[in-house]
Write a structure and sequence with these properties.
181 residues, alpha/beta, Restriction endonuclease-like alpha-beta roll fold, six-stranded mixed sheet, five-stranded mixed sheet, 11 strands, 36% strand
């Protein structure tokens, strides 16, 4: 019998002063049995950094033809393809053919090595941005906040994501790996 995903609920008060975007989010996240808590919280941070109407979590890790997060227009046109982790260049090339905006949020203890090996080829892809989350910051978020029912305040200012649950306050500062257009 196949293992079922663990369902997490997240209530997030999002205050993104960088984009003048403020909203209360009620999210349901399915954590695949092979997905780590770090990866799941990295998906939450990426979601908050890009939140707009139409942004949703996909079936994620269990599917090969969808990113972790994407956004469609009201007419079902794919607008954003967002990967979390260390996707290969071929996967991102395919994403570039499907979406006008491709974002990658790399993280993990091997993310720097992944970028050293793949960075030149990925940087050549059109309309692709690559960011890296600090592995230590993601681990700290996981230790502090991972639970089945998350209640978080997420503030974004100056490119830094501040996460608070009323008792603990931590931050994640993504570093851009691809040059600005």
């Amino acid at each position: 019998m196949a293992l079922k995903p663990t369902i997490h609920k997240a209530q997030i008060e999002l205050a993104d002063s960088d984009r003048n975007h403020y909203e209360s989010l009620s999210l349901t996240l399915a954590q695949h049995p092979s997905e780590t808590g770090e990866r799941m919280l990295a998906r939450v941070v990426a979601f908050c950094l890009n939140h707009e109407n139409g942004l949703v979590f996909t079936r994620g890790i269990s599917t090969t033809d969808e990113p972790d997060i994407w956004r469609h227009s009201d007419s079902d046109e794919l607008l954003n393809w967002i990967e979390v982790g260390q996707p290969d260049e071929a996967r991102l090339r395919k994403a570039c053919g499907r979406s006008p905006a491709v974002l990658v949020y790399a993280f993990g203890s091997g993310a720097s090595t992944w970028w050293t090996i793949n960075g030149e080829a990925i940087s050549a892809l059109p309309h692709t941005e690559v960011w890296q989350f600090s592995w230590e910051e993601i681990v700290a978020l996981t230790k502090a906040f991972l639970s089945r029912n998350l209640r978080l305040s997420v503030s974004i200012a100056g490119g830094t994501v501040y996460v608070d649950d009323g008792n603990t306050s931590l931050q994640v500062t993504p570093a851009r790996l691809t040059p600005c257009d």
